[in-house]
Amino acid sequence: MGNSVEYVCSWLGLSKIGVIPALVNPQVRDLSLLHCIQVASCKAILCGPDQHKVLNSLTERTFIAHLPVYVWDTHRRHMEVKGAIDLQERLTAAPSHAPPKPDNVGYRSDLLYIYTSGTTGMPKAAPVTNSRAIFMITGTHYMTGMSKKDVLYIPLPLSHTTGGLLGVGQTLLFGCTSVIRNKFSAQNYWSDVCQYNATVGMYIGELCSYLLAAKERPEERKHKIHMMTGNGMRQDIWREFEKRFRVGAIREFYGSTEGNASLVNTTGKRGSLGFVSLILPKYYSVALLSCDLTTGKLTRSENGLCIQCKPGETGQLVGLIAKDDPAREFRGYVSQGATRETLVRDVLRKGDSAFLTGDLLMMDRQGYLYFRDRLGDTFRWKGENVSTMEVEAAIKMALGNTVDVVVYGVEVKGHDGKAGMATLLAQNNTLDLDALAQHLVAALPPYAVPRFIRITTELELTDTLKLKKYQLQQEGFNPKSIDDDMYFLNQADGQYVPLTKFLYQRILAGEEKL
Questions:
Q1: What digits encode the pLDDT tens for the residues 155-211?
Q2: Per residue in 230-289, pLDDT tens?
Q3: E-state strands within 50-155
Q4: What is the pTM for the complete model shown?
Q5: Which among 362, 279, 356 has a CA at the least distance from the CA of 313?
Q6: Helix H segments across 48-86?
Q7: Which residues contact 78 (CB under 8 A, 6 or more apart)?
């Protein structure tokens, strides 16, 4: 479902009767959607009417054909999902008294599942317990300095933790007002904020960049926003954002749905994710560890323990695990195999364990932490985590499994995150890129479709026979320094066009839409 009041009421009501809702990103398509439904062992599907095309394309596939589909259509439009059950009719006929509280719902039981890419592979269902949800929502409320009188403006996807739990959770636990917009709009942002008297804005980094890129309008200086809180604001736009929009405070935080490594910047230090005391580091639940900056493999000393970074060094952030502690426990994913891949043992002392975030951070001499890069087979684009393995699988499905392909993210001037790029191994340039583009647009969420294609005649392998990505990432997509044929996804017609030097300059100048 898309953002709506009904979305929140649905998962909250289901949780209260002991059903675990799995919040699927409405942009997910095809095999990824099938995977999301299967990995959470779903027994039914609840959706909005705008998802009928996506669901109808899957009804002939395997197990999903046998799952009941409930459609919540408040506008009573024509039911276009095959075999769908009108939830509005069911609710009208249902009793109005509260159902009995189930015995299996408690403080430590699962509230819901939120999907995350982790650092590798397809989306993973991460269980969020009642205790963890209360800890995250309460921590956000008090660490950022919110009050019950605040009005939160939330244009972020409710299927994600930031908007759907940390944001809306302020209403559920503290009685704040939440203003939910179906989809972010830079053009309407400040007029919405003024219309609904919002006092706190929820953000992800890309949202802030889009607002700065938009034309100035009178509403952006007449609002009542006293604080912006979220994650991913770039250090180079922080000061400009504060000055242009006259926002009193920016409260950046860091964390992941499944992880136990959380940070909050409570002082407004520009560009920082948060703070760790250099005097009393053992009292913090996180540690910054020395590692190979290419592979992420942790460096160990002669005694077999990990080595903590010194100020100015870049390393991987980990969350130290402690059972029965909402702040430090680690439930991992529904899949136990995926959970084991994110754990490391014998970290600071023998027998302890920690959660690997897959993020490279740097700490300054005062203990403030700054984001540097993301490890593993994922990268962020348009505020979403993109799984390179998922994109590679979609490309091979279109071109055949015999085609070698490497997918990675490349930096683009003026844009947050990294744009997707795929390098294909082909002895002669006979690949049907038009058909490939058509398949990828249909099979992948819009944010996961590669913006750049590179066709080469040779790909290097690592010692373990894996295709090398690091060198390709560093080379980027500059036609002046790369002899291989390269292509750019034209957003107007959804086709790949040759990446010329002229087009390259237009991209750098921000004149081409990505």
A1: 999 999 999 999 999 999 999 999 999 999 999 999 999 999 999 999 988 899 889
A2: 998 888 889 999 999 999 899 999 988 877 888 999 999 999 999 888 777 677 789 999
A3: 69-71, 85-86, 110-116, 124-129, 151-154
A4: 0.81
A5: 362
A6: 52-56
A7: none
Check: CB of residue 70 under 8 Å from CB of residue 85.
Answer: yes
Are the C-beta atoms of 204 and 162 separated by less than 8 Å? yes
Q: What are phi and psi of 221, to 5 degrees?
A: -120, 5
**In this predicted model, what pLDDT tens digit does every residue of 115-144 receive, in sequence order?**
987 555 678 898 999 988 999 999 999 999
- Whether residue 271 contacts residue 243, with contact meaning beta carbons closer than 8 Å, is answered with no
Could you read off the pLDDT of 26-37 as tens digits, one per residue?
888 888 888 888
If pLDDT is split at 50, 70 and 90, which confidence band does 358 have?
Answer: confident
Beta pairing partners, 314 = 362
Query: Residues 452-505: pLDDT tens digits?
Result: 999 988 877 554 335 667 788 889 999 999 999 999 999 888 999 999 999 999
Q: For the chain, what percent of residues have pLDDT higher than 70?
A: 92
Query: Residues 386, 496, 53, CA angle at the centre, nearest 5°?
Result: 60
Question: Taking Cα atoms as reference points, which of 159, 158, 208, 160 lies closest to residue 178?
Answer: 158
Distance from C-alpha of 296 to C-alpha of 200, rounded to nearest angstrom: 36
The answer to whether the CB of 199 falls within 8 A of the CB of 193 is no
Rounded CA separation 376/297 (Å): 11
Q: How many CB atoms lie within 10 A of CB 421?
A: 25
- Spatial neighbors of 34 by CB under 8 A, at least 6 apart, are 58, 61, 62, 64
To which H or E segment does residue 9 belong?
helix 5-16
- Name which of 15, 14, 18, 9 is nearest 168 in CA terms: 9
223 HSE (CA, 13 A, CB side):
30
* 130 Cβ neighbours under 8 A, 6+ residues apart: 105, 106, 107, 108, 109, 110, 111
Give the DSSP H/E element, type plus range, for residue 341. none
CB atoms within 10 A of CB 201: 27
Write down the pLDDT at residue 468: 67
Residue 464: per-residue pLDDT: 39
User: What is the distance between the alpha carbons of residues 195 and 418, in angstroms, rounded to a whole number?
Assistant: 34
DSSP state of 139: H
Which has the closest alpha carbon to 454: 395, 385, 513, 401? Answer: 395
Give the burial string for 277-289 (b: 16+ CB within 10 Å, else e): eeeeeeeebbbbb
H, E, C per residue of 263-297: EECCCCCCCCCEECCCCCHHHCCEEEECECCCCCC
> How far apart are the C-alpha atoms of 383 and 417, rounded to whole Å?
8
